[in-house]
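Hi everyone, sorry if this is the wrong subforum. Our group has a chain we'd like a structural model of before ordering constructs, and none of us has done structure prediction before. Sequence below.
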Amino acid sequence: MAHEKSIDEQIASQSEFILLDPTFSYAFGHRGQLYLSKGDYERALADFSEAIRLCGWWNPGNYCNRGDCYRRKGDYERAFADFSEVIRRKPEYSEAFQGRGNCHRMKADYERAIADLSEAIRINPKYSWALGIRGECYRMKGDYERAIADLSEAVRLDPTYSWALGTRGECYRMKGDYERAIADLSEAIRLDPKYSWALGHRGECYRMKGDYERAIADLSEAIRLDPKNSWAIDVLSKTKHANSKQQETKQTTKPVPPTANPITAQRHYLDCPNCGKYYAVDQVNPQQRIDCSNCDGWFLVKDALNLRTTRERVETKGFFQRLWSGSSIERSNREQLVSRAETYQSIIRNEMLKGNHAAAQVWQLKLNEIMRQIDNL
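Answer:
Right subforum, don't worry. Here is the predicted structure as tokens:
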């Protein structure tokens, strides 16, 4: 409330300046920025337009601010018009390239977004905001290495840039590096305790690690801050279900005495009944639970497929059945390709869960290429 009150007081001060001098363009521009920060877009637009009328091109920032206001309203055509006009008149004005690039990002036109943002960074190499947004574009394209590079530079330039930290954390999560992901997301939350997106994705990291209690706490807080976050609501439901199953397993599973174990201490291999990923175990308990890192599910050893004492599969079932069939190629080459296919399929599932259909399509193309390579072996 203190923050809101401070903004209202500043608005009142600028209004007094305007009453004293109705031609004071700076006061209109500053008050427009205050209205924009409150989400009062109509009043912000009115003030920016009046500032433009009074001072014209003396301050192109008014055009960029109005363009950003149109962008937040979802009026991309008017936003593009303002940013493009600034670029036409002031081709070295980096903020205009950044603003237009952000509009392209919002429309999922990542190639054009990257082009504009790269120009903004060329003009101003220390433009942390442009670096962060370009990193987000690379993330949406599935290019996590470039995304992390841009986001890391943005954070180096501005260590308080919580959005860049959160986005870099999400890149690490998609790479399966949950420890780094949690570290970045936690720092973003420290900087902005109301950052519901970061809370939700940290909760997803905890869920992938099997730490359901922390996952439920983070996801619940994310939903409290943003009750319309359908993704967090869906993940929270799945997490609670998984936690319930885990608790049931702990209560019902009893250790099998060594004498009652029909399997010796010799190393055995088995496959997940859900996705076909293989696991190695040194001493098998039929009631032992295995959490599958590939399909995010779990199974008991007694329900596994293809229990055997050699790594090579004697029978193949599950999602990757056709990938493992055949015997005319070297096992090592096929295993490498199958491992990559499994990884891509997991990434596609995670992107679809988040609603990132464009990124999912990128990874689907990569998966299709792997499948073609396997078929041609």
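For your construct planning: Residues 299 and 306 are 14 Å apart (CA to CA). The chain is about 65% helix and 5% strand.
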